[in-house]
Design brief:
about 325 residues, Alpha-Beta Plaits, 2 domains, four-stranded parallel sheet, about 15% strand, transferase, Malonyl_CoA-ACP_transAc, [acyl-carrier-protein] S-malonyltransferase activity, Malonyl_transacylase_ACP-bd, Malonyl CoA-acyl carrier protein transacylase
Length: about 325
């Protein structure tokens, strides 16, 4: 079985879909036209040409990643490559909801635009810090060290990687204090706010009131929820997870393990970048995972689909 996994904010780069846009204009042209009409600005221009400062803004980055991920999933569908289950990392959950038929693309665009706007209006400046260590024990030690700084765990990404989220001053001080520890690597993430932290609590009520104005459908394939790592097709459970992920920890490590336990044999990262592909390698060195970062990477995937996976695949 195959799972599609969708990246979240921070995966955006200028030109991130240029190869796909050139190779599959019949898919990406109408998709960008729909996005531009829905959003009221030229998303295609920002995705292809920047500037990066604008693409990093939450209210732009989230619709951009959703649009690119949806386009790539449509390319895969045109090749007869389809998922048995889906999951999205953080904001990537909305791309997964489109893939699973819970939301149509244009409704998802409206929701993520509102989400980005609401998050951008949070008063306290926030940041997110990725921390990677060489052992599980060291990660647990770093988590204990973080407690006095009044920052939250934004995501458990892998056995040796955690993301911290909170007020910028606190996160920056924590980064400074742990950056010289042996076996520890730290990196500020390309986000404009402290997602999945207590700072987001002020935007939840307004955002969820807006979300409730859109009808959601029962998922056509199972989705793994961000904040519980439970498998579901129930729209009520999905709605609750949308609310929780604003302020609660993303359980990505548990999500990948849940997919493996459910019988998933192959993972395809659907969207810009290869962050989730690299994370999968931290679980098992021989895990079958593919990035769709560029159209060229689809060629190997298509070959494997024909020769080793059970299914028919159209040539790229």
């Amino acid at each position: 079985m195959i799972a599609f996994i969708f990246p979240g904010q921070g995966s955006q780069t200028v030109g991130m879909c240029k190869g796909y846009y050139d190779k599959f204009p019949e898919i990406f042209n109408p998709l960008f036209e729909e996005a531009n009409d829905t959003l009221g600005f030229d998303l295609k221009k920002i995705c292809l040409y920047g500037p990066m400062e604008q693409l990093t803004e939450t209210s732009v980055a989230q619709p951009a990643i959703l649009t690119v991920s949806t386009g790539i999933s449509r390319v895969l569908a045109s090749m007869n490559i389809r998922a048995s289950m889906v999951a999205g990392h953080s904001f990537g959950q909305f791309s997964a909801l489109v893939e699973a038929g819970v939301l149509p693309f244009n409704d998802a665009l409206r929701i993520v635009r509102k989400r980005g706007q609401a998050m951008s209006q949070v008063k306290i400046p926030g940041s997110m810090l990725g921390v990677v260590t060489n052992t599980r024990e060291k990660i647990l030690h770093i988590i204990e060290e973080a407690k006095p700084y009044q920052i939250d765990i934004g995501a458990y990404n892998s056995p040796t990687q955690v993301v911290f989220s909170g007020a910028s001053a606190n996160v920056e001080q924590f980064q400074k204090d742990i950056s010289q520890l042996p076996g520890v690597k730290v990196r500020m993430l390309a986000t404009s706010q402290a997602f999945h932290s207590r700072l987001m609590s002020e935007m939840v009520a307004e955002f969820m009131e807006y979300v409730h104005s859109f009808p959601m459908q029962r998922a056509r394939i199972p989705i793994i929820l961000n904040c519980s790592a439970e498998k579901t097709v129930d729209e009520g459970a999905i709605l609750e997870d949308i609310k929780l992920q604003c302020t609660e920890t993303i359980l990505w490590e548990t999500t990948i393990n849940a997919l493996l336990d459910a019988g998933i044999e192959h993972f395809i990262e659907v969207g810009p970048g290869n962050t989730l592909t690299k994370l999968c390698w931290l679980f098992q060195q021989n895990i079958s995972v593919f990035s769709t970062e560029t159209p060229m990477k689809l060629k190997k995937m298509a070959e494997l689909w024909k020769k080793e996976w059970k299914g028919e695949c159209t040539d790229v």
